Amino acid sequence: MSPDAKPAKKPVSTLFSTGPTRKRPGWSPAALDDAALGRSHRAAGPKARIQTCISKIHSVLELPDDYVVGIVPASDTGAVEMAMWSLLGARGVDVLAWDAFGRLWVADAVTQLPLENVTTHVADYGHLPDLSAVNFDNDVVFTWNGTAAGVRVPDGDWIPDDRAGLTIADSTSACFAMDIPWKKLDVVTFSFQKSLGGEGGHGVIILSPRAVKRVNSYTPPWPVPKILSLAKECKLEAGHFLIERCAGRLRTRIRGKMIKPGAMQIIADTDFQRVKAI
Ligand SMILES: Cc1ncc(COP(=O)(O)O)c(C=O)c1O
After folding, report:
1. CB-based contacts of 196, cutoff 8 Å, min separation 6
2. Residues in the ligand 1 pocket, defined by CB under 6 Å
3. Which fold has domain 49-277?
């Protein structure tokens, strides 16, 4: 077949997102009619929509009240590397992998960050490493669901409640699709392009109070590019996260400083009401 010939076999649905996943049922370009495309994400209207999106993520995922949510640049990869560059180095690191992206986080820990005490637990496709060998005195980086490998951790029972290190879980294809025991995780990341059938470009990072404490009390010994930094002047960057106390409950909002142009499309694209119904 000539490379220019029209393929005879066509997909059942032509609604692809960048995942690559299918767009959500009911999606049409009309979803973007009032998406505030071309407007600054710092303007009042777009900023309010970003705040609503953050609140919906918090409520649909049923996160603990004291966990905070931020939307960050560079998709899930940006969110995972932001956690690694901003938080690691305070103690040893165990990093686990059973798919291609997990292997990227291993490479980050072993060849990119100047970490002194790194233990790797890598399994071939189709397998998990021995989870009982993980040292939770260290920070632990792993992938909840190795999307392309089709292998995920069974549950959170292997993670102790009284761990000393932080657990950092790339959960991009697990969030909204699998039960996640939030209290076992200190950093959770995902992007809109997986279970939500949305678009890439921005990621989401969720932090437990212990992760926030690390941001506020620890400065890595290496330079952290602004785009990977959770902190501003050694405190959680209020541009990512705005934490409000509302009727005694912690609520999270975002001011959108780190959000880059393009976020408005991603946000308009997502139908959280429907996700909640499912
Ligand atoms: C497990 C896992 N982590 C990370 C990524 C990268 O996600 P993104 O393209 O949103 O950076 C993927 C993408 O397929 C993935 O499956």
Report:
1. 24, 176, 270, 275
2. 75-77, 99, 101, 143, 146-147, 170, 172-173, 191, 193, 200
3. Aspartate Aminotransferase; domain 2 (3.40.640)
